[in-house]
Amino acid sequence: MLELIAHLRVNQTLPDQELKTLLMETDQEVLNVLYENARQQCQRHYGKKIYARGLIEFTNYCRNNCYYCGIRCENRNVQRYRLSKEEIYACVTEGYALGFRTFVLQGGEDPGFTAKDIGEIVRWIKRSCPGCAVTLSFGEWEKDIYQYWYNCGADRYLLRHETADEGHYKVLHPEKMSLLKRKECLAQLKEIGYQTGAGFMVGSPGQTLDLLIADLRYLQQLQPHMAGIGPFIPQKDTPFAKETSGTLDMTLKLLAIVRLMLPKILLPATTALGTIHPQGRERGILAGANVVMPNLSPIAIRKQYQLYDNKISTGEESAQGRQLLENRVRSIGYELCMCRGDSQM
Ligand code: 5AD
């Protein structure tokens, strides 16, 4: 097993069967070796810096109906909100004063915002906050719209592929969504010049080890600058309400393997990971993650952006809790970095 880990580190890949063996490993001593290798690879490129991003969840309206997600359009139990431009600017201004130099604007696919609205918001942030990066995470749009936002100054785009298998994609999404479209968007984003993020949930309904290997192969092929990888967590108003969460161990293994396959990738220790385990994000960092995304959204609306149940939203995961977050990161020997934190890829 230790040889497999060394092989993965040196060659940045492993055959399917060996990957599967690694994904099935449960011996904590072996896993600690895996995580240590992932940490070392991360430190070669990023040192002991953990990049902080200010997350603004600007709308929970969504035209999609993804079966796993709490803000799916058919969920009548969610109170919908849409931040005004002024409210978004207030979040950004507060975040900038707190030291944040990356703002992530994340929302459901909300037709209530026109392409021009988003462009205007991006322009405002880039003009008002010198030296900052803007990340959009707003779903699937036409290529010319992606290009327009890029021209307005957007630097990065997050769009998880969710699963790299067409059949499994259909298990997680309604008929009218397709993996082909998702992959097309990701290819376009990269082509335009965005630092692009893909990613997937760990432990989503119907997921198998073979499907996880397909996710890893897709990341190797796409070579994204970032990958969002966190556990699936059921949300009570979705068809997956009775399913079980992804586990801490499986998520950590995947973070570490992705770090070893794509050593320079930016990997967040996700809020979902922090939600399934009190030390989830620290453990994520110790398995190769190097980004945290505390919440800058107005506190009053945070409860309404419930992609999954029991999502944490105060304390360290809030931008206002920056000192708490800094303490936590320091406690495991890392330092929080408020810089832009561009990908080294
Ligand atoms: N559990 C975990 N992650 C989820 N997401 C959506 N719903 C859930 C859930 N129930 C993730 C998706 C999406 C990102 C914004 O949040 O992967 O891309």
Task: Provide an overview of this structure.
The structure is a single chain. The longest helix has 19 residues. The protein is of the alpha/beta class. It has a 6-stranded parallel β-sheet with strand order 2-3-4-5-6-7. The protein has a 3-stranded parallel β-sheet with strand order 8-1-9. It has 14 helices and 9 strands. Helix content is 44%, strand content 12%. The chain is globular, with a radius of gyration of 19 Å. Helix 1 packs parallel to helix 3. The site of 5'-deoxyadenosine (5AD) has 12 residues, from loops.
Strand fraction band?
5-15%
Q: Going across the major beta sheet, what is the strand order?
A: 2-3-4-5-6-7
Number of helices: 14
- Quote the distance from N terminus to C terminus: 29 Å
Summarize model confidence as the mean pLDDT.
Answer: 96
- Low-confidence segments, ≥5 residues, pLDDT <50? none
Secondary-structure content class:
alpha/beta
Number of strands: 9
Helix share bin: 40-55%
Overall spatial form: globular
Biggest sheet record: 6 strands, parallel
Question: What oligomeric state best describes the polypeptide chains here?
Answer: single chain
Give the topology:
Blueprint: H1 2-11, H2 16-24, H3 28-46, E1 49-52, E2 54-59, H4 85-98, E3 102-107, H5 115-128, E4 133-137, H6 143-152, E5 156-158, H7 166-172, H8 179-192, E6 195-202, H9 209-222, E7 226-231, H10 248-261, H11 271-276, H12 280-285, E8 291-292, H13 299-302, H14 322-331, E9 335-337
Parallel strand pairs: 1-8, 1-9, 2-3, 3-4, 4-5, 5-6, 6-7
Helix pairs in contact: 1-3, 3-10, 4-5, 5-6, 6-8
The structure holds 5'-deoxyadenosine.
